[in-house]
Every structure is written in C-alpha cells, then in structure tokens.
Amino acid sequence: MSLLQCLPVATALILLLQTLSLVSSTVLSRADRITRLPGQPRVGFQQYSGYVTVDEKQQRALFYYLAEAETKPISKPLVLWLNGGPGCSSLGVGAFSENGPFRPKGSVLVKNQHSWNQEANMLYLETPVGVGFSYATESSSYEGVNDKITAKDNLVFLQKWFLKFPQYLNRSLFITGESYAGHYVPQLAQLMIQYNKKHNLFNLKGIAIGNPVMEFSTDFNSRAEYFWSHGLISDPTYKMFTSYCNYSRYVSEYYRGTVSSMCTKVMSQVSIETSRFVDKYDVTLDVCIPSVLSQSKRVNPQPQQMGEAVDVCVEDETVNYLNRRDVQKALHARLVGTRKWSVCSNVLDYEVLDVEVPTINIVGRLVKAGVPVLVYSGDQDSVIPLTGSRTLVKRLADELGLRTTVPYRVWFAGQQVGGWTQVYGNILAFATVRGAAHEVPFSQPARALVLFKAFLGGRPLPEEF
C-alpha cells in the first residue's frame, strides 16, 4: 500500500492538488524562461520574464523580469526591486541601468560586474499597470491610480507569481527600491504582514529603500539646506527658500495648479542660481545625463517656464534596446495601447497628491513587527537629500525607544570609505553612500553591492578594509 493510500482522504487530496499545482507551475514558469537576450554574453544563470494578471475582469497585467542568482540560486534569497516615479520602470531603470546583470551598449549587452544577482535572485516588477510593458486592455485603468491600488496589485502579483515559481515560496524575501518606492515598499510590506496573519505566505526578512520619499515636508524641505550647504544658492535665496516659500509648499501648490506669486518668485531665483546646467540628482555630475535618471519627475516637478527639463543629450541605450522587436520577443513582452516602451509612463494618470501622505509611520509599524529596515542615501542627491532621510530615521528610532547599537561611523568598500552609517536596536539602519547620486547602484555600483550584501546578511557595514 502506498503512502498516499494510508493518508486520510482530505490529506491525500491536498497532496494531490499540491503535486498538480507544482507540475502546472513548472509548465508556467518554463513558458517564461528566457532562452537568451539579443546580444547577451554567455552566463550560467537562468532568466525569466512575462506577465502576471492581477485583475482578470479588467485584464490588468504586470510585467516582471527575474534574474536568478549567478551561483547556487536555490540557496540565495529572493529580492523584489521597485523603482519610483510614480510611473517609472524597474526593468529599464533598475534591471538595465542600475543593479541588474546586464547593461545595454550599442547593439549588445555587457555584463554588470556589480550586479545584485551575485548575492540574490533578483525580481524586477514594472508597476503599476501602464508602466513599461505592464498594461490594461481598458485605458480607464490608467486613470486615478494611487498608492492603495498599486500596493494591492503588487500583493496580488506576488501571490500569483509564487504559483508560477513555488520553489521560492519558503525562501527569504526582501523588498528593495528607491525614490517613490519609499511609498511602494513599506505599503506592500504592510499588506504582506496583514495577509500573513491568516495565510502565512510571505517569508519577509527585511526592506531597504534608497533616497526614499517617506515624509513630504521633511524630505522636500531638506532641499534648501542641501543647496545652501553645497554652495548652489546664496544666503538671501536660502532665507527666502526657508521663510517665504519652502519646497513642500511649492510642490503642493504646483500639483493643485495654484502656484502663488511668492512661490513663483522664490523658485525662479532658486532655479537661476542652481542653474539648469547642474544635475539635481547628482550635484557633482556634469550636465549631460541619460533620461533613465528621470524617475523622480513626479517628486521633482519642473514647470516649463523654469527650464528644468531633464537633459537627454546622451543617447538612451536602454530605450533603444527595449524597443527592439527581437528583444521584446525574447522577453515575452508586448506593447498594448502604446507604440513605444518608455522609461517613465506617458499613459499613467497617478494620484500625485499621494506624495503628501507620509509612509514613515508605516516603516515604524514594520520595525515594531520585527521587520529589519535599511534607509540609505546617495550623498550627492539634492532631490531627496540625505539630511531629510537621516532626520526621519533618527526621529523614528527615538519614538520607538530604540537605542544606538552601531554608533555613527564610516564604513568601507574596498580600501575606500563607502559612506557613513548608524544602526538602532539592530533593526533600523541608516547609511549614506559616498559619491552616489539619487540612483545609488547606477552611480556607485561597487559600494552599492557592499551595502546590499551586508543588508541581506543582517550584518553591520564593514568598519575596516
């Protein structure tokens, strides 16, 4: 008599359904396997990409790209990466410009020597619908999209993605991202914890967010001090920028279409002094920057009269590559309702006022629930400056009664200072990345990888060579 025959009928049925599910999911994931991307160098790891339908009725589907770990993928954690905007692509920015295994160069792909899939299985999600290759069959689905809808869709995506890849179900799971992902990541993590109370599906081990928007006024108003301390604005302009019209007031008025004459005057002067020939995402960078660095366009509004549009004088190789038909075929991707893949969505109508809703309180609830949190900042970014993030993390630690467990100190990457860090209660950490821009893995890939490795291992950043 077989083991199956010895079990109670209900248990046997469950086992049978699980077996059938495993077989079915294997077929599903096999269909998403990427044989080889055009121009790709030979590698030893597997890649997958395709769609997960998050709403059958409205036919809303999210596109993903999975780069499994370079070595021993079965023993490595799963890391979800989300870019910001809201409305910018984790595939084009995260995977192909920041921490993915390849970067486009002309007609081919070159290996990223500091890819995060050296340490983890990297899952990149184009979210919400209307971003990149993610789509809805009805254009009305792109209207009125907000944080709540995005978080729910991201949760459903993960639930259904695990049906395709059940081998990842019990794997350690981390959620990472940057910029407006300071909203996406904590909100998704909160839903996962709530879902786990009944279903215990997600093995969430931590979140890491880079140069994140977590509290509108603190993050945005730290810009004035950053500009002044880096010599970008004069003393009188600094006074106007902090007394008469701070940046949060300006953005709030801008999104409501009611910019006051005072804010117009102040912002015009700020714009003149900071110059349109300085990249606000990296104040040390020369003027020509690729358009992939425009993911913060919604948290960094640039009215036409101020002449602050993102400079795209460098050819955007990612856009060219992902708009090739052979590439889209290899990725199992398709364009629905649009003729061209874009770094940041041209069809999505996101509720921009959601930026004013703080997520630092959600971060606090995650810490209380035992979820480790890392907030890191590229120290050359004036869009979401390190000073705001540092202030918020310290304030949160005080509110939670967390004592300093790693005092503020330098950390090293190789034989150079990688940045500075402080840890509270061995669960809430802040770190800067020296010389990094808004997109840390793009601008300081080696240091970003050291940071990422320490985060996954739950270890403090290295304090010596």
UniProtKB/TrEMBL annotation:
Signal peptide residue numbers: 1-25
Enzyme Commission number, as recorded: 3.4.16.-
Location(s), subcellular: Secreted
PROSITE patterns named among the record's database cross-references: CARBOXYPEPT_SER_SER (PS00131)
Family annotation (Gene3D superfamilies): 3.40.50.11320, 6.10.250.940, alpha/beta hydrolase
Entry keyword Protease: yes
Pfam families on file: Peptidase_S10
UniProt keyword Hydrolase present: yes
Lineage top rank: taxon: Eukaryota
Stretches that traverse the bilayer: none
Keywords: Carboxypeptidase, Hydrolase, Protease, Secreted, Signal
InterPro entries: AB_hydrolase_fold, Peptidase_S10, Ser_caboxypep_ser_AS
Family the entry assigns: Belongs to the peptidase S10 family.
Protein name: Carboxypeptidase
Organism: Camelina sativa
